[in-house]
From TrEMBL:
<dbReference type="InterPro" id="IPR036388">
    <property type="entry name" value="WH-like_DNA-bd_sf"/>
</dbReference>
<keyword id="KW-0238">DNA-binding</keyword>
<protein>
    <submittedName>
        <fullName>Chemotaxis protein CheY</fullName>
    </submittedName>
</protein>
<keyword id="KW-0804">Transcription</keyword>
<dbReference type="GO" id="GO:0000156">
    <property type="term" value="F:phosphorelay response regulator activity"/>
</dbReference>
<keyword id="KW-0902">Two-component regulatory system</keyword>
<dbReference type="GO" id="GO:0006355">
    <property type="term" value="P:regulation of DNA-templated transcription"/>
</dbReference>
<keyword id="KW-0805">Transcription regulation</keyword>
<keyword id="KW-0597">Phosphoprotein</keyword>
<feature type="domain" description="OmpR/PhoB-type">
    <location>
        <begin position="1"/>
        <end position="92"/>
    </location>
</feature>
<dbReference type="InterPro" id="IPR039420">
    <property type="entry name" value="WalR-like"/>
</dbReference>
<dbReference type="GO" id="GO:0005829">
    <property type="term" value="C:cytosol"/>
</dbReference>
<dbReference type="Pfam" id="PF00486">
    <property type="entry name" value="Trans_reg_C"/>
</dbReference>
<dbReference type="InterPro" id="IPR001867">
    <property type="entry name" value="OmpR/PhoB-type_DNA-bd"/>
</dbReference>
<feature type="DNA-binding region" description="OmpR/PhoB-type">
    <location>
        <begin position="1"/>
        <end position="92"/>
    </location>
</feature>
<dbReference type="InterPro" id="IPR016032">
    <property type="entry name" value="Sig_transdc_resp-reg_C-effctor"/>
</dbReference>
<dbReference type="GO" id="GO:0000976">
    <property type="term" value="F:transcription cis-regulatory region binding"/>
</dbReference>
Length: 383
């Protein structure tokens, strides 16, 4: 088992016979993460623990993490993970796992995965990420689905690109959604949706969701809301046939988006009233954040710019509170596309362009976009 020794006098850390020299705050940060390994900490929490009584910015944590990774790179068994939209966690790979009796207790495993399913329904990405980080302490085995879903809500594109232990067909749906959620307005994402649908590589559930929900959004963002509206009867028929109650709110939000994009204000208002009722009974954070955005779009089209901006920001803040990093990126992309298509709002365009630049920097969107698209194209060409 890998074990680090910390020499506080010289700010050095030793692993086996190797010694690495660190700066004082690098040393303190590594020691804190090592002592609390397998736990996830936000940048704010790390600032409080490692920089008490000081006033550095959040970027200070990122810079120190970057330098630690470079200095500790030869120690393959130690990894500092970026938990997208949340913070950082240190893990030791290749370490013998604790022999928790709960690992062999199916009741415990079912109960934990029941929590994951509930948090997924409620849109609580923060709870999903926090629970996933506690595998070692709580003694449960994360299913392949939730291994991927946890990284998906964090928009961790690099993780999906590097995970060769998952077959391409198992990653395909997630990587398609990562691409169409972060690429902004582009003809390629609609074409990729159609290719994936005809590839035969998706599970029945994934193909159904892509056909009745995700591709409709791609039509809207490609300037074809009428084409999306034409396919709504199929969506409703499949929902009724398969009793997809969990799709009711996401589809209603999608339909409102279609009507707004087609400037069908009366239909959008009817759906807005319906969604208000649904959200009063089930105020799921993910859907609430999306609904505030739709309200903002509706006001932009009717001239209420100041109130529209407030609602757009409230929607983004709700998604941020829920740690739905991918949905927040997607939302900012949709806001920018809507502003560009449906009015001249230079101040708002500049504001949300700045927000996108920050999300781009934090999540490596531009850095990984080409590799993500090439992966999708190569996987589909091999069919």
């Amino acid at each position: 088992m890998i074990r680090l020794q910390f020499d506080a006098d010289g700010y050095s850390v030793i692993c086996s016979a190797d010694r690495v020299m660190l700066l004082a705050k690098e040393f303190a940060l590594l020691r804190f993460l090592y002592d609390n390994r397998n736990q996830v900490f936000t940048r704010e929490q790390l600032l409080d623990r490692v920089w008490p009584l000081e006033y550095p910015v959040e970027r200070t944590v990122d810079d120190h993490i970057y330098r630690l990774r470079k200095k500790l790179k030869p120690w393959n068994a130690l990894r500092i993970h970026t938990v997208r939209g949340y913070g950082y966690s240190l893990t030791l790979t290749g370490v013998q796992r604790q022999n928790h009796p709960s690992l062999r207790d199916q009741e415990v495993q079912d109960a934990v995965h029941g929590l994951f399913r509930k948090y997924q329904l409620l849109g609580q990405g923060n709870s999903i990420v926090a629970l996933a980080a506690q595998q070692e302490q709580m003694g449960f085995e994360l299913s392949p689905f939730y291994q991927m879903y946890t990284r998906f809500v964090q928009a961790d594109i690099l993780w999906f690109l590097e995970r060769e232990d998952f077959a391409p067909k198992d990653r395909l749906y997630w990587m398609l959604l990562l691409y169409i959620g972060t690429a902004g307005v582009t003809d390629q994402k609609l074409a990729l949706c159609e290719q994936v649908l005809s590839s035969g590589l998706l599970s029945a559930e994934q193909e159904r969701e892509l056909r009745i929900l995700n591709i409709l959004e791609a039509y809207v963002e490609n300037g074809q809301p009428e084409r999306a509206l034409e396919r709504l009867p199929l969506t409703f028929a499949v929902m009724e046939r398969d009793e997809l109650d969990k799709f009711v709110m996401p589809v209603a939000l999608m339909e409102m988006y279609m009507h707004l994009a087609a400037n069908r204000m009366e239909e959008a208002r009817v759906l807005s009233v319906r969604l208000e009722g649904m959200l009063s009974e089930a105020p799921y954070l993910r859907e609430l954040g999306r609904y505030r955005m739709m309200q903002g779009f509706m006001l932009l089209l009717t001239g209420g710019v100041n109130e529209a901006e407030r609602l757009l920001d409230e929607g983004l803040n709700t998604l941020d509170m829920a740690k739905q990093e991918l949905l927040k990126i997607k939302a900012v992309c949709q806001i920018r596309g809507f502003l560009k298509r449906y009015g001249a709002f230079p101040a708002l365009e500049e504001k949300y362009a700045t927000q996108y630049e920050r999300l781009d920097r934090d999540n490596g969107l531009t850095m990984h976009r080409l590799a993500l698209r090439r992966w999708l194209e190569q996987t589909l060409s091999a069919v």
